[in-house]
Design goal:
Molybdopterin biosynthesis moeA protein, domain 3, 4 domains, about 425 residues, Molybdopterin biosynthesis moea protein, domain 2, six-stranded mixed beta sheet, alpha/beta, single chain, 7 helices, Molybdenum Cofactor Biosythetic Enzyme, Chain A, 29 strands
């Protein structure tokens, strides 16, 4: 098979994302919105902070009352009350007065500066000032953080933990978010056993279903059902009929190549499903299939586990991101220096399992795992990234800048 009979990774991604419309909109409480995609633009409904407040424990006063203060001729301000967090000083501050103030408490009317408690000299009911105090000291002005009407987040933004504090402080709940897709999973293969079953002759445990289900759940996408069926055309066809009625997206593993037991394509054909593409110029994952049927989408991933992971990261997750309304659905690569030379023999684009880390000088470094192969779960377990090498045979010298796709947290290089 030549590259001419396959489409490129980029062409395949474009076909996957072509014409994707987000799912319907629903309302969710802010506490349930981490990982959800906004379906509305958000603007600040009020200032943050909503009032001038103190950044320190101390004394609120009028700076103009301290202009003449010197050590030899100090100014004495009468302490007339307290402004506490949640209970401000309601009377306006008069000339030559001060009030005790707590961090976060509202500044009394008329006060324009704060003397920290550590610098305060108290003489009975009076605050002694030995030097002028500048206006605005240790004061957080109303709207200093966010002003009323400030654009905050646009529709299509996936909400993260870093957004929640701001939205909570502004009372922005509930929110309009896009509905999450309903996903159905199927692993095909007469040789497959449950992952927790004892081995038997000529059988292997199904790792693909668990990889896919947990990876999707980590992104907040649940599976309405996940099944395993033998290599039987009628069984696969019946599963597809059910899934096409209940799910938005179907993800199948195995059965998409050209062997006698690769029955996914015949089952799809029997149901009149339109295959958009089959075979991508990449390794692992060449025989990946993408199909559509009356608003439903089907991904057929090869059975080898690393091909499943690459297909998930490069095609399935971008599609799900777009379906949830995300405006930048494609994988986010980083640039890193190769920690060793790599000779690429394949004409296809290649995703190699790798270790991505941060060098002491802050530069990212990426090194392929010792063994490479679409079935090598041990290599995947050692990796926290994939190196992406474009099509064509090439030798990459140590230190060459390459694209890396992180899949797990990075650490410092040893």
């Amino acid at each position: 098979m030549t590259a001419k009979t396959m489409i490129s990774v980029e062409e395949a991604q474009a076909k996957v994302l072509e014409g994707v419309n987000p799912l319907g909109v629903e309302t969710a409480d802010l506490a349930e919105c981490v990982g959800r995609v906004l379906a509305q633009n958000l603007v600040a409904p009020h200032d943050l902070p909503p009032f001038d407040n103190s950044a320190m424990d101390g004394y609120a006063l009028r700076a103009e009352d301290t202009v003449s203060a010197t050590p030899d001729a100090p100014v004495h301000l009468r302490i007339v009350g307290e402004s506490a967090a949640g209970r401000g000083y309601s009377a306006g501050l008069q000339p030559m007065e001060a009030v005790v103030i707590n961090t976060g408490a509202p500044m009394p009317a008329g006060a324009n500066t704060v003397l920290p408690v550590e610098q305060a000299q108290i003489e009975g009911d009076y605050l002694r000032i030995d030097a002028p105090i500048k206006p605005g000291m240790h004061v957080r002005p109303k709207g200093q953080d966010i002003a009323t009407g400030t654009p905050l987040l646009e529709a299509g933004t996936r909400l993260g933990l870093q957004h929640i504090g701001l939205l909570a402080a502004l009372g922005l709940s509930p929110l309009q978010v896009y509905r999450r897709p309903r996903v159905a999973l199927l692993a095909t293969g007469s040789e497959l056993l449950p992952y927790n079953a004892p081995l038997r002759p000529d059988a292997i445990r199904d790792s693909n279903s668990l990889i896919l289900r947990l990876w999707l759940e980590s992104r907040g996408v649940g599976c309405i059902f996940a099944d395993t069926v033998a290599d039987d055309l009628s069984l696969i066809t019946r599963w597809l009929e059910r899934a096409l009625c209940e799910a938005d997206v179907l993800i199948l593993t195995g059965g998409v190549s050209v062997g006698e037991r690769d029955l996914v394509k015949p089952a799809l054909k029997e149901l009149g499903v339109e295959t958009v593409f089959w075979r991508v110029n990449m390794k692992p994952g060449k025989p990946i299939l993408f199909a559509k049927h009356y608003g439903r989408t089907i991904f057929g991933l090869p059975g080898n586990p690393l091909a499943v992971v690459v297909g998930l990261l490069v095609f399935v997750l971008p599609y799900l991101n777009a379906l949830e309304g995300e405006t930048q659905p494609l994988p986010r690569y980083v640039t890193a220096r190769l920690g060793t030379s790599v000779h690429k023999k394949e004409s296809r684009a290649e995703f190699q399992t790798a270790q991505l880390c941060v060098m002491p000088d802050g530069i990212l470094s990426v090194t392929p795992t010792t063994a490479q192969g679409s079935s090598l779960l041990g290599s995947l377990a050692q990796a926290n990234a994939f190196i992406y090498l474009p099509p064509g045979e090439n030798t990459y010298a140590e230190g060459t800048l390459v694209k890396a796709l992180p899949i797990a947290p990075m650490e410092g290089c040893v």
